[in-house]
Specification:
Blueprint (H helix, E strand, L loop, with lengths): L2 E7 L8 E7 L8 H14 L22 E2 L2 E2 L21 E5 L8 E3 L2 E2 L2 H10 L20 H11 L6 H5 L6 H12 L8 H14 L10 H5 L7 H16 L1
Helix pairs in contact: 2-5, 2-6, 3-5, 5-6, 5-8, 6-8
């Protein structure tokens, strides 16, 4: 396939960016989207031009690094996948593909398609963990009974990879789906009950401080989430927050 790529280029966070058009040829339909980007960068390097900066790591749909806004959709025109799992057979010969970084005040652009998602890390640090007693009085995890329903729902929430597609697809750049998945992961398990009150209050407080927008209830986040994180987690987090606020 021969394609026209319109890519956002920005040298640094304080620089003014712009869309730059590139032509790539002989792209196999069996390539992943990131492999196509590799081909483009090889061509740019061969011409002594600056390659396009983009995040990637595992390329197996696990790490959540490959955050690209492709033709107006987070991770591109497919569902339940990350950018590295998007294949070129989704596109047609001669297509024009627009590629941008995730847009959100809380995700400032570092360079080209790379954004700073440390806001998610700070939210995690605020409460997305369980303190473990290592004094010798720890209880074996297998000795704590957990219903299969609760375990399944906790595992579903834990599949969130923190890619930020929920934020990128929300018109208010809300992080509610991400935060609710992290809150739910522990709220559903007995190990998470000890710090449940502080956890939800601290994580929501940090989310607000990071300048994420409010939830719009449009469901775009769930649609674009590569792991299918359910909106039910937002409802659960709201309940947890209400209970924690009354206790406080």
């Amino acid at each position: 396939m021969d394609l026209i790529l319109k890519i956002w280029r920005q040298k640094g966070s304080n620089d003014k960016g712009q869309m730059v058009e590139y032509n790539v040829t002989d792209i196999s339909e069996h390539m992943s989207f990131l492999e196509m980007m590799d081909v483009l960068n090889e061509q740019l390097v061969a011409k002594d031009e600056e390659p396009v900066a983009f995040d990637h790591d595992c390329r197996e749909g696990i790490c959540g690094m490959c955050s690209m806004y492709i033709n107006g959709e987070a991770h591109g025109p497919d569902r339940g996948i990350t950018t590295c799992q998007l294949h070129m057979r989704t596109f047609n010969d001669g297509d024009t593909i627009t590629i941008e970084p995730f847009r959100a005040n809380a995700f400032p652009v570092i360079k080209d398609l790379v954004v700073d998602r440390m806001a998610f890390e700070r939210i995690q640090q605020a409460g997305g963990f369980i303190s473990v007693n290592t004094s010798g009085n720890t209880q074996d995890a297998n000795a704590i009974p957990i219903s299969k329903h609760a375990a399944d729902e906790a595992m579903d929430a834990a599949t969130c990879i923190g890619c930020g597609a929920c934020v990128a697809s929300c018109k208010n750049s809300s992080a509610m789906l991400f935060v609710s998945a992290k809150v739910s992961q522990y709220a559903l398990l007995p190990q998470g009950q000890v710090e449940a009150t502080d956890r939800v209050l601290n994580m929501v407080k940090q989310m607000d401080e990071e300048s994420f927008g409010n939830c719009t209830n449009t469901g775009a986040c769930e649609v674009e989430c590569p792991k299918g994180i359910s909106l039910e987690n937002i409802a659960r987090m709201n309940r947890e927050y209400l209970v924690a606020s009354l206790k406080g």
